[in-house]
Amino acid sequence: MSDETLEAVKPPLPEQRQEVPGRTDEMDPRPDHGEESYRGSGRLAGKKAIITGGDSGIGRAVAIAYAREGADVLIAYLSEDEDAQETARWIEQAGQEAVLVPGDISAAAHCRAIVDKAVEAFGRVDILVNNAAHQMTYENLEDIPDEEWDKTFAINIHAMFYLAKAALPHMREGSAIINTTSVNADTPKPTLLPYATTKGAVQNFTGGLAQLLGQKKIRVNCVAPGPVWTPLIPSTMPPDQVKEFGKSTPLGRPAQPRELAPAYVMLATDEASYISGATIAVTGGKPIL
Question: Which among 69, 109, 187, 224 is least surrounded, fewest beta carbons within 10 Å?
């Protein structure tokens, strides 16, 4: 692994601002999703995966890794068509099938449509990665609109319930559900109150669902990232916070998205057959309880 792209995200970062939900090509520096570095070894050969938020950031890195490990991948995303198409190109370059499904996962009907598309294309679902998330920064409680609170819960936690429920009839023994929580589930950042609250709910949902689906031999785990350099950051944080993003971690920088992918690969493999109900921390050295 080259250190060049890791040093590139060491603060101070260029101050920058994007409109929500943000675009990869407008980021400075451009995130590294493992396009040139990830090497697969067939660990997911023949598997069929759904990844929400797979157009960019962590989702793109996971999609590239899954494809290079031998999985076909459906990418669910909101409206970032150019980012999603680029992710699809990487999947196809790995020799795997890519399916793109745009739309708002806060709607239960759309979540069911995502699963229907996957079953139509692949015949089943082996891996469900609930990764898409929404966040916004607020300095004061009274500044948070009721609608923003509802939207954050609808995207970050309600959609996980809808997708898991829809996917379950199409999953076999040995299938895996992997949810993206956050270091904020353990140490919530006050200016991300709606987001951090949902991430605590994701961790609880993961633990409960793992117990509920254990008898079906379906594993459920979550990954808790620390700060990661994705379009979510310049589109939802003030430029002065973007400049110092990740500086407070023991490693002194945010992660590149490629540094998250190995955790998602490991949890999806058959080798992780006894790992369920776990939270895998990828936090740059910041411990979580």
Answer: 109
Mind telling me the catalytic residues? Answer: 195
For the record, the structure tokens of 112 come out as: 């069911």
Inter-residue contact 277 to 207 (CB < 8 Å): yes
Reported pTM: 0.96
Contacts of 82 (CB under 8 A, 6+ apart): 23, 25
Q: What does the pLDDT look like over 249-274, one tens digit per residue? A: 999 999 999 999 999 999 999 999 99
Cα–Cα distance for residue pair 187/191, rounded to 1 Å: 12
Question: What values do phi and psi take at 235, rounded to 5?
Answer: -95, -10
CA–CA separation, 20 vs 62, rounded Å?
Answer: 22
